[in-house]
Q: What sequence folds into this?
């Protein structure tokens, strides 16, 4: 997992941490420049916690240990291009809104890149490459992401489905060939239907992939491959889950290109066939 944008990651995942880990998190956010030069024991003393809490905090952040936290902090402190997250205010002009939405999108993507586990991405992409059938499911804004998955892998010649009816999807997965994949998408990692389908997919022997916001969750723990997007701070105005949606679409694109690159000539051939098919359809409509 990448180590970029660690301060933003800490801010956003704070509510999911234990009380002892929150002590460490608050100190890191208050004095990141000092933490870079501390030992784990000094960090524990200054944050009024314990060395074990410091180590657990680092692991909760997706890091191997305290040394990696210091490297990540050094990278963050050296980066003067951090955009940040902004909520919409009553007196914002249209120009202000454009800048805020752009900043939120850029920050969300940067934070998500910092969470990418390349090895996990490659293994998940290999499963999708080998899969005889792919099922993707999400609710609300996540349903749009599921549809994007189905559309992209259809272009690669896969049997890919984004079924909205939970019962029909369950029946389809029950008869799915060995090696088929289920992708459960839930930014909160708490969507009941997604969790239920993930449990059923595991029971049915499908390979399972979860798309969730970063942090501990049952959904990520029970999936074969867990892919994380950034957790943006809660805002009063968060229309259409814009930040999470951008990040989820980005993860889909990464998986798609990694998967397509495994046999690039065959992938290009299948993509061209889908383009030709759409063009033929247009000509039939015009005739």
A:
């Amino acid at each position: 997992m990448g180590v970029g944008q660690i301060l933003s990651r800490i801010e956003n995942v704070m509510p999911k941490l234990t009380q002892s880990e929150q002590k460490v998190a608050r100190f890191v956010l208050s004095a990141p420049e000092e933490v870079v030069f501390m030992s784990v024991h000094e960090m524990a003393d200054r944050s009024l916690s314990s060395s074990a809490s410091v180590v657990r905090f680092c692991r909760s952040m997706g890091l191997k240990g305290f040394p990696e936290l210091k490297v990540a902090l050094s990278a963050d402190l050296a980066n003067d291009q951090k955009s940040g997250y902004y909520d919409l205010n009553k007196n914002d002009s249209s120009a202000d809104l454009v800048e805020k939405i752009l900043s939120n999108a850029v920050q969300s993507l940067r934070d998500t890149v910092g969470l990418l586990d390349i090895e996990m991405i490659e293994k998940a992409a290999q499963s999708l490459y080998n899969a005889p059938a792919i099922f993707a499911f999400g609710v609300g804004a996540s349903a749009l992401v599921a549809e994007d998955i189905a559309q992209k892998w259809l272009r690669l010649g896969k049997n890919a489905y984004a079924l909205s009816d939970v019962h029909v999807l369950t029946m389809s997965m029950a008869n799915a060939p060995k090696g088929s994949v289920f992708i459960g998408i839930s930014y909160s990692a708490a969507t009941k239907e997604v969790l239920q389908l993930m449990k059923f997919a595991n029971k049915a022997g499908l390979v399972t992939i979860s798309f969730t916001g970063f942090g501990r969750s049952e959904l990520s723990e029970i999936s074969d491959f867990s892919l994380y997007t950034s957790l943006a701070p809660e805002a009063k105005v968060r229309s259409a889950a814009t930040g999470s949606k951008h990040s989820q679409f980005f993860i889909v694109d990464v998986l798609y290109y990694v998967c397509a690159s495994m046999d690039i000539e065959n992938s290009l051939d299948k993509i061209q066939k889908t383009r030709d098919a759409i063009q033929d359809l247009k000509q039939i409509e015009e005739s």
